Amino acid sequence: MKYKLMDIREYVLKLAEVISEVLRVDVEIVDSSFIRIAGTGRYKGKSCVNIEEESFIYKKVFESGKKQVVENPGFHRLCTDCPKKNSCIEKFECCTPIVVEEEVIGVIALICFTDQQKKLILERLKEFTNFLDKMSELISSKAKENYYKVKRETLTEDLRTIVNYIQDNLVVLDEDSEVIFFNKKFQNFLNNDMKIVDNSHIKISIKDFGERVNINNSTQFTLEINGIKTKVLGCVNDINSSGEKNRLIIFQDLSKVHKTIYEQSNESNFIDFACIIGESDEAKMVLEKAKRVALGHASILITGESGTGKELFARAIHNESTRCKGPFIAINCGAIPDTLLESELFGYVPGAFTGANKNGKIGKFELANNGTLFLDEIGDMPLHLQVKLLRVLQDKIVIPIGSNKPIHINVRVISATNKDLEKMVAQGEFREDLYYRLNVIPLEIPPLRKRKEDIAIIADHFLNKYSNYYQVKKPRFTKEAMQRICSYSWQGNVRELENTIEYIINLIQDSDYIEERHLPVKILNSSSSEPGDTSYNLESMEKLLILKAINEFGANTEDKRKVARALGVSLSTLYRKMEKYNIRKLQEYIT
After folding, report:
1. Which residues have C-beta within 8 Å of that of residue 528, sequence separation ≥ 6?
2. How far apart are CA 229 and CA 393, in angstroms?
3. Architecture of domain 5-148
4. Domain residue spans of the chain
5. Which residues, 6 or more positions from 568, have their beta carbon under 8 angstroms from its beta carbon?
6. Own/partner long-range contacts of 224-232 (Cβ < 8 Å, ≥24 apart)
7. Which end of the chain is more exposed for a tag (fewer CB within 10 A), N or C?
8. By 3-state DSSP, what share of the chain in percent is helix, strand and coil, each rounded to 5?
9. Spatial CB neighbours of 190, under 8 Å, sequence gap ≥ 6
10. DSSP per-residue codes, 437-495
11. Over the stretch 308-357, which tens digit does the pLDDT of each residue have?
């Protein structure tokens, strides 16, 4: 039963006393469990007692849901089974059910113990019974009101608990912009981030709202909290309740949002210079230079063939720099269409152009603020964007597409390319002024074939990595297999070596040793006819030339057209030669 008289016992006690005082008769009120909730006169002070064994009249009221008037208690038919029927001291009873939503939750009774009281009630019986009905309705209303009050309080407490579990800051303002409610997250934000200890009087105003919107349909705006400004990301909603106009603000600290984006969009493993493997003089020289330039703020241009680990160096430089606590944001300029690259770099405001996200977008430059922006494949950036990039590097200001409001940034730019930018400058394919702005500190990563003494060390590193990943026993290279590995030219550099090791781990299964037969065909064919080979067999030389051309240009259909042109033969002739020398499915191993 959800409506309980015991929950409003104090109220029922006072009401019973008032009724008794007004009518000059005694009052008894019991609940559905036959517990006396209130009593006056002879029953005063005898509350919270179970009277079920002597409540036969009350039982009838509960069963029928109707009023019962008994003029001769003890002798009435309802009293037949009562143990006190022959010694009943009551002279009269008028009992009315207390009903809430068609459920009888109790009985209120007028009781006479003297003939004078009985006479008084009988003379005005209709008036008294009507009054009793009103009192019953009053108690019923109070029980119902109390139930919903408790329910609201419980719901409010539950909502407060839920709100405190929300990971965003939540605050409610009144019409005067004063805080009337907030969650624990906001309180921590005030105490730790804003250094506001006294939470008794907080006033918040909203600045720059709605200019740029971005992540998860949230808007970037500024909150001024007791005169202190801070940039946030969130939403503001009006709440109109009971004639009051309040505002609900849910937000995150913008700097923490940027940090979260950085952590989620970058590798989980921390990369520093200790992660870069190399014992050769070439590797040591470039590592030493990278360590020295990491502590500065100048732009760095990392050059080197594909697969040498340019991004690895960029991440290590960032993590060893004074910006290590800021974000590292990477973008591949060659992997994004020209039409989208500008918006990726600089961002845009809502409605900036047709087809744009209605919520706008924060650019990579702004996301990288106080950190590092890595521009991979910078040589693929179109000329019209090179102009805007140069301006950003010179002025350290970003203006999102569709906006006229400049955003000041503090970003270190590290670029990387496998192209000859000087040659591109000479050919008018890359801006000379931008080239010198990016190339303040050049860092060239040597190809793997120029540091052959590192091949075995790096191969062993990848053996450990993929043995653990695939949960297999780490195999060992035979002497002959390692000679093949070390003598191979590795046109794809470290990336090709890593892919080769993963291929081998998947191929050998439970073998303890990596033998020559486990190596990819391209390595076996290439190292069987190295330049130092003393064989002058024309077919061997022809096979070697084809393999070298494939290693240089690639092995897909379009690449083979380039191979054929380089060899001076038709594509059909190339296929016949590959068939003749059993050069098949080589593309599976070319990286």
Report:
1. none
2. 27
3. 2-Layer Sandwich (3.30)
4. 5-148, 167-256, 266-446, 469-588
5. none
6. 225/190, 225/194, 225/196, 226/194, 226/196, 226/202, 228/194, 228/196, 230/193, 230/194, 230/254, 231/255, 232/169
7. N
8. 45, 20, 30
9. 196, 197, 199, 202, 225
10. HHTTEEEEPPPGGG-GGGHHHHHHHHHHHHHHHTT-PPPEE-HHHHHHHHHS--TTHHH
11. 999 999 999 999 999 998 999 999 998 888 888 999 999 888 777 776 67
pLDDT band at 589 (very low <50, low <70, confident <90, very high): very low
Task: Say how many residues make up the chain.
Answer: 591
Assigned CATH class of 266-446: alpha beta
d(CA 166, CA 234): 13
Residue appearing with tokens 């081998």: 504
**pLDDT digits 0-9 by tens, 26-64:** 999 999 999 999 999 888 888 888 988 877 888 889 989
Minimal CA–CA distance to 473: which of 431, 505, 436? 505
Q: If you search the block for the tokens 């008084």, which residue do you land on?
A: 120
Q: Would 5-148 and 167-256 be classified into the same CATH topology? A: yes
Q: Which numeric CATH code is attached to 167-256?
A: 3.30.450.20
Q: Which residue has the tokens 């996200």?
A: 357
| pLDDT recorded at residue 532 | 39
